[in-house]
């Protein structure tokens, strides 16, 4: 699947997290778990003068995709930059653990993670890190049974611990507007300097860590246009492919070898970065 689609339906990126979940599930099957009506909020934000949100920025639901049982988690990028804390992280981990339990009981259930997140919520620090570790553990446990599909959507991107979580998934789908990396541009600029990484240079940033570059570098499985139908079709496609023979995270040694040969003295261009990554991917094939 590529970005040349000419779909005319509504934008997927412009939807809220709840609308995104509803869009990927079969019509009429969405059942939200721990909804805003349960009023389970972060106990830490209010103490720091930050207005909390009743779903803590994460929507969890179960339903079906093409009739197959699936649990879907979507992060709301507009709330605290999509960052995860104790409650929001526990909701995602709990949803994945539910799917693991269902599979262990002989009831197949896949998972879809719709990611727009900067990673750990700084206000909750170690609690957020612990929650993300639980998410990662649950992904590894679930992917043995059924696919876990990550969909990196809007311009907030997917960074920090959740970028590692995405890398652990069976498949990764990205839009052109999405970004994927361990550290966000502002963090890199702060630590390495603007001469190394200018976070305000948007064309450069997307040329290095945007959806098109990540797809062409072989780091993600699909690059889609921004439409509801494209998102739904891509999710269906990869759920139907089943569990991959070799997961991406098991290929790390090939990419590491390519990076060790990289000359870091000169400023690397997007094309050069792509070639390094492709060499690592090719060495495994």
TrEMBL record:
Organism superkingdom: Bacteria
Alphabetized GO MF terms: lyase activity
InterPro entries from the UniProt entry: AcCoA_carboxyl_beta, ClpP/crotonase-like_dom_sf, COA_CT_N, Malonate_beta
Keyword Disulfide bond among UniProt keywords: no
Pfam families listed in its UniProt record: Carboxyl_trans (PF01039)
EC number: 4.1.1.88
Membrane-traversing stretches: 148-173
Keyword Transferase applies: yes
Keyword field: Lyase, Membrane, Transferase, Transmembrane, Transmembrane helix
NCBIfam families on file: malonate_beta (TIGR03133), PRK07189.1 (NF005530)
Protein name: Biotin-independent malonate decarboxylase subunit beta
